[in-house]
Design a protein that fits this description.
Blueprint (H helix, E strand, L loop, with lengths): L1 H7 L3 E12 L5 E8 L5 E9 L1 H12 L10 E11 L4 E9 L1 H21 L17 E6 L4 H13 L4 E6 L7 H12 L6 E5 L14 H8 L5 E4 L8 H5 L2 E3 L2 H73 L1 H5 L1 H57 L2 H6 L4 E3 L17 E5 L4 E5 L3
Parallel strand pairs: 3-5, 6-7, 6-8, 8-9, 9-10
Antiparallel strand pairs: 1-2, 1-4, 2-3, 4-5, 11-12, 12-13
Length: about 425
């Protein structure tokens, strides 16, 4: 029977979707070549094998175009129908795989998907969302304990910022990837997040095919928070990259993007603090100037009152001396006029004293109100300074290293071999010696 099949059914080019791919211990590759109808229903399938002797050549040809044989990939292959007597089974023996067919199919489907997304207004929808200035609550969609997971999470941890990462596990390649990604996104949509990050490690173009899915792209485009992708491919952009708010090349770059957002926010807070402190110091200096001016004016008023009293005394003495004997004859008249003058002087002195008292009260009242306002403002600045204090920075995981002279060490070039260093942490001090 095998001889009859080989003679009557020579090799031919066939196309279909790869499913249930598995490699044997001897290096042969087994899979099912499936033909699907409408609605992804399987209408036909055949067992297929690639012998190890042919597999090396096929993998080299696919590798030149960054492709691999994987579940869910459609291929065009040169194969022959064979009969395997031990199991009584028909199978295809694949001799060649056309790499251009898979690339052309992927490219055509990608163009159709992008056209449909553009017509629905979904290509730029997620980009219209505003990313939080402090994106600390991060939803992560990737495979748990994968290299992509560790690269992204370790980048956030090293930053020292308080990121809260909630993982939504999903396969990111293979036959079940699209279904698991949709389920993970559904779970993430029910959790309060600042942003959603979708990452995977490096791989071939065919491994990236799941992220060209129209259904997956629609979910990402309509997601309620900004979506950041890091799909581990330096050259190609998947449809998921194009509908995302921000596209990065790798999981590490996705983490670095979020860290930069936090660093920018921290710098803005520091600049605001500097401006508030400068404004407070300026207003305090102005208030001190006003108080000094009022004090000098009050002293001047007192001096003028004292000078007026002195002049009055001097005038009385001069009048008494110049009058001489005439005072004796006109004592009554001068006495009356002196009494009137003294009474008038006292009135003027009391009026002057009243005006001085009013000026003092107004000055004190104005100073008290301004000082209370400044005290309240300074209290707010004090709280801000405590929040930006070095001690809080140390508690976030940073440290300060000083030389033996007590100077802050900012460059390794200044660390002389054999010298002692002191490193200040949030809790305690570590002393060390430099070795080269």
């Amino acid at each position: 029977m095998r001889d009859a099949l080989r003679s009557r059914l020579p090799s031919a080019w066939l196309s279909g979707e790869v499913q249930r791919l598995r490699r044997s211990g001897r290096g042969h590759l087994y899979f099912e070549l499936v033909e699907k109808g409408s609605g992804d229903d399987i209408v036909a399938k055949l067992e297929a094998v690639v012998w190890r002797s042919d597999l090396e050549q096929i993998e080299r040809e696919l590798g030149r175009q960054e492709q691999t044989l994987a579940d869910g990939v459609e291929i065009r292959c040169r194969a022959q129908v064979d009969f395997y007597p031990p199991f009584g089974r028909l199978q295809l023996v694949v001799r060649r795989v056309d790499p251009d067919f898979t690339l052309g199919l992927i490219s055509r489907r990608r163009r159709e998907t992008l056209k449909q997304l553009a017509a629905a207004g979904l290509l730029d929808l997620n980009k219209t969302l505003e990313l939080s200035q402090v994106p600390l609550r991060v939803g992560l969609v990737t495979s748990f304990d994968s290299a992509a997971y560790h690269d992204f999470v370790s980048t956030l941890r090293k930053s020292g910022f308080g990121f809260e990462v909630e993982l939504f596990h999903s396969a990111v390649q293979g036959q079940s990837a699209e279904r698991e990604l949709e389920a993970a996104l559904a779970r993430a949509s029910a959790v309060p997040l600042d942003c959603l990050v979708v990452v995977r490690g490096g791989g071939s173009r065919t491994d990236l095919a799941v992220f060209d899915s129209r259904r997956l792209a629609e979910i990402l485009a309509r997601f309620r928070v900004p979506v950041i992708t890091g799909l581990g491919h330096e050259i190609d952009e998947a449809v998921a990259d194009l509908v995302a708010h921000t596209r990065t090349k790798t999981p590490t770059e996705a983490g670095e993007f979020l860290v930069r957002q936090m660093q920018d926010a921290e710098a803005r807070v520091a600049r605001i603090g500097d401006r508030v402190l400068a404004s407070a110091q300026g207003r305090l200096a102005a208030s001190r100037g006003i108080l000094g001016t009022l004090g000098r004016e009050l002293g001047l008023v007192r001096f003028r009152v004292s000078a007026a009293g002195t002049r009055l005394g001097s005038l009385g003495e001069r009048l008494a001396a110049s009058a001489g004997g005439r005072l004796e004859s006109a004592d009554g008249r001068l006495g009356a006029r002196a009494s009137q003058f003294r009474a008038l002087a006292m009135v003027r002195v009391r009026e002057a004293a009243g005006r001085i008292e009013q000026l003092v009260v107004r000055a004190a009242r104005s100073s008290s109100v301004d000082l209370r306002r400044q005290a309240k403002h300074l209290s707010g600045l004090e709280r801000l300074c405590r929040q930006l204090s070095p001690e809080r920075t140390l508690r976030r995981g940073f440290s300060i290293t000083r030389t033996e002279e007590g100077k802050v060490l900012r460059s390794s070039a200044r660390a002389v071999a054999g010298s002692r260093l002191t490193t200040e942490l949030a809790e305690g001090v570590v002393r060390s010696r430099v070795e080269r």
